[in-house]
Structures are given as structure tokens and as C-alpha cells.
Amino acid sequence: MTQSLDIFLILSLGLFAIGTVGVLIRRNALFVLMSIELMLNGATLALITFSRSHASSPDAATTGQVVVLMIIAVAAVQAAVGVALLVALYRSVNHIEIDKLGELKG
Amino acid sequence: MSLHDIFALLIGSLTLSTAVMVVFSRNAVYATIYLLLTLLGVACEFVLLQAHFLAIAQVLVYAGSIAVLMVFVMMMVGFGEEHLEGFEVPGGAIIMVFVFGGILVAAGGVGLVRGAPLRVEAPTSVTSSVPTHQKNAKQKKAQAPVYGSIKVVGKHLITHGILAFEVIAVMLLMAIIGIMMLLRERRVPVVEDDGDL
């Protein structure tokens, strides 16, 4: 009995696409952060799927899982730093609407 | 279509719909709940892909800490009713969505149509009912290290990936220190005002 892996690839594609849409259309920085998390999840799901497809050679397959573990750690750091930036931003300008932030415009 | 496929389809469609809700819900609290559901759904898919250790890590790190972090920020930033914004979509974003979405869908479609379907052998029953001590040595030897188990992944992590492991440890420390520097209260030094300047 075989297990199809295409379903997981489609799911990862969908997650990445939805995350991209969220990053592009939301103005609230918190939603942008959440959408980035969605994109990261799509990428990790694709990595694990391809790792699973090479399960016959365990060494190569495990590398994919280790990379995903590191991505999870980096994603946690990214979320924490992003959220800290949001709080700092809110303290200085009292909102987190990214469209209204134009201080760096020349 | 095996049982694995059916479960993958069910959980996958659930995950996709909650992901859509993350992006399009107006209330940030609801969006966080949907994000939590999405992350748990992805963890379920990890289990279906035999990546048990990563599923645990996903639940611990994402569902356990990142979702809580988001809720905390909502408390600090104070999401009152006035922050429930709609989204007026700028025209450039629509073009970007169509371009990127078109590229993604085209790539995925071409891959799915032209490429051979990815299939692997579904795992048979995970545990046998025979107690361990009754198995003979031959059967024990046949039990190769299981793909995706904590033992295999951990061993690989501290042998082949040891450099990245250490770098990530340093990066975590840097992140902690950076966040503390970023968010500490800057106390304005109290100027003694003795009135006769």
C-alpha cells in the first residue's frame, strides 16, 4: 500500500500562497507576522515531504528533518524579535499600522 | 486511496481553511485562534509524514509559545474595538497577489501534471503485539532505527548538524539580549529642580 505525497505538497503550496497574500494585503503588523508564520510552515511542510520521499536512504532523509528543526528554532527567534519590535513601535507611535509609517521617506 | 491519504486530505483541507481565516479575519484574537488551529493541523500532517519528533517540536514551539506570544502582544498593545480594521486593499498588492499566485499555481500545476506522482510505501502496523523479551535476536536485528524517530533525528543533529546547532544556540542568546535591550524602560534621569536657575 502506498501513500501519496502530492497532498502534502499541495497543502504546503496553499499555506505559502495564503501567507503571501496575508503579508501583502494586511495593514496591521501583527497579521503580517502571523502570515509570515504561515509561509514558514508551508516551507517546512515541503521540506519534510521531500525528506519522506527519500526515506529509503535514511541519512539523506534525516538531514531534511534536522533542517526543519533549525527552521523552527529560527522562526521562534524571528517571532520573538518581530513582536518585540511591534511593542517598541507601539510605544513610540501608538499604533502598528504599517501603511501609516512613513518616517523613513525622504 | 489509503487511509493515510484520506486523513491527509481531511486535515489538509481543515488546515487550509483555517489558514484562510487567519488572513481574512478582522479580530486579531480570532486570527490567533485560527493560527493555533493551523499550526496544530500542520503538526498532524507531520505525524502522517512519520516525522514524530518534528510534530512534537511544532506543537511545543509554535502552538505552545508563538501563539501565546501573539496573545501577550495583543494584551500589551491593547486591541480594543478601535483596532478592528477592515482591509482596503491597495492596487499594487492585488497585482502582486495575482503575479505571485500565478507563479505558484503554475509551478505547482506543472510539477503535479508533468512530474511523476510522489509515492512512498505506507508504514505497516507500528507496534507488534509481541512483547519485546519474546522476540528472538533475529527480529531485534531486523528492527532498523525508525525513520523520523527522536533517536535518529537527535543523533543526526549532534553529529552532522552540530555547527548549525551551536550557531542557533548563540543566536537564541543574542535574540534574548537584543529583545531585553529593545524593550527595557528608558528611565529619564530625574533632574533636580532647585528653582533658582
Q: Number of folding domains of chain A? A: 1
What's the overall average pLDDT of chain A, rounded? 87
Order of helices and strands of chain A: EHHH
Total count of strands of chain B: 1
- Major pleated sheet of chain A: none
Structure description:
The complex is a heterodimer of chains A (106) and B (197). By secondary structure, chain A is mostly helical. Helix content of chain A is 76%, strand content 3%. Chain A has one domain: Helix Hairpins (Orthogonal Bundle), CATH 1.10.287. Chain B has 197 residues and is mainly alpha-helical. Chain B has 7 helices and 1 strand. Chain B has helices spanning 3-24, 28-48, 52-77, 91-114, 137-142, 150-159, 162-183, and one strand at 119-121. In chain B, helix 2 packs antiparallel against helix 3 (52-77). The longest helix of chain B has 26 residues, at 52-77. The model of chain B has no long low-confidence stretch (mean pLDDT 79). The chains are: A mainly alpha (106), B mainly alpha (197).
Walk me through the topology.
The complex is a heterodimer of chains A (106) and B (197).
Chain A: E1 2-4, H1 6-25, H2 29-53, H3 58-93
Helix pairs in contact in A: 1-2, 2-3
Chain B: H1 3-24, H2 28-48, H3 52-77, H4 91-114, E1 119-121, H5 137-142, H6 150-159, H7 162-183
What are the defining features of this structure?
heterodimer; A: 106 residues; mainly alpha; Helix Hairpins; 3 helices; B: 197 residues; Four Helix Bundle (Hemerythrin (Met), subunit A); 7 helices; extended
In short:
Chain A is 76% helix and 3% strand. Chain A has three helices and one strand. Chain B has 197 residues and is mostly helical.
